[in-house]
């Protein structure tokens, strides 16, 4: 009986390990999400727009492109840290391509205004694509050239390498959904959301 019990334990252990291995392998083969960091004015706006786009898995508002370590919102607002308000967008390329993600970016803000979006003025509100690798850089440059055909004025969007991304404070995350009745959300963000929802609806037809 003892010998049979040992074999049973070994067999059970093998099944458990095999299952764990299969799960790990499955995770490695199915987790194909990619990320890109985009800045198009206030990060609340960028976040709210991309939350409506199918294939986008998660969005984190934050700061990038500056020189100050671990910047706070108050510091970034001074324009002295060099950071831009950005959103780190995680998406499933099997559902939405990087080219499509970038395409919505040009529709979500005005890329022809230098260091401003509407009443939000300062380098922290600059239009910027921060790429992770050469493939993203090439895609961004191609997308920018295509988008230029829609605008009379030259696009001033920076396309630069991502060196470091800092997540913004917790109260900045999911801001529009959490504060839909706030004045800024009603006046500034809502029209952008409605614009992208209209585009998405038209694409279905």
Tell me briefly what this model is.
46% of the residues lie in helices and 20% in strands. The chain is α+β, with helices and mostly antiparallel strands and 205 residues long. A hairpin with a 2-residue loop joins strand 4 and strand 5.
Q: How many extended strands?
A: 8
Give the rounded overall mean pLDDT. 89
Which class do the helix and strand fractions yield?
Answer: alpha+beta
| CATH fold description | Peptide Methionine Sulfoxide Reductase, Chain A
Would you identify the CATH H-level superfamily? Answer: Peptide methionine sulphoxide reductase MsrA
Task: Explain what this protein looks like in three dimensions.
- The protein has one domain (30-204): Peptide methionine sulphoxide reductase MsrA (Peptide Methionine Sulfoxide Reductase, Chain A, 2-Layer Sandwich).
- Helices cover 46% and strands 20% of the residues.
- The protein has helices at 2-30, 43-50, 73-77, 98-108, 134-148, 175-178, 183-204; strands at residues 34-40, 56-64, 84-91, 116-117, 120-121, 127-131, 158-161, 165-167.
- A hairpin with a 2-residue loop joins β4 (116-117) and β5 (120-121).
- The longest helix has 29 residues, at 2-30.
């Amino acid at each position: 009986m003892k010998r049979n019990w040992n074999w049973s334990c070994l067999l059970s252990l093998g099944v458990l390990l095999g299952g764990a291995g299969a799960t790990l392998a499955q995770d490695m083969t199915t987790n194909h999400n990619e990320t890109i960091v985009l800045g198009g004015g206030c990060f609340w706006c960028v976040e709210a727009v991309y939350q409506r786009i199918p294939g986008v898995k998660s969005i984190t508002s934050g700061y990038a492109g500056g020189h100050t370590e671990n910047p706070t919102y108050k510091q970034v607002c001074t324009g002295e840290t060099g950071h831009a308000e950005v959103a780190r967008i995680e998406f499933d390329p099997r559902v939405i391509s990087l080219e499509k993600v970038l395409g919505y970016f040009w529709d979500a803000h005005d890329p022809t205004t230098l260091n401003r979006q509407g009443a939000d003025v300062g380098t922290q509100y600059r239009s910027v694509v921060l790429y992770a690798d050469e493939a993203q850089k090439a895609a961004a440059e191609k997308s920018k050239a295509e988008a230029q055909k829609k605008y009379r004025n030259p696009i001033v969007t920076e396309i630069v390498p991502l060196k470091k991304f800092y997540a913004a404070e917790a109260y900045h995350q999911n801001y529009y959904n959490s504060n839909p009745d706030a004045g800024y959300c009603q006046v500034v963000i809502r029209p952008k959301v409605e614009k992208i929802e209209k585009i998405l609806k038209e694409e279905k037809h």
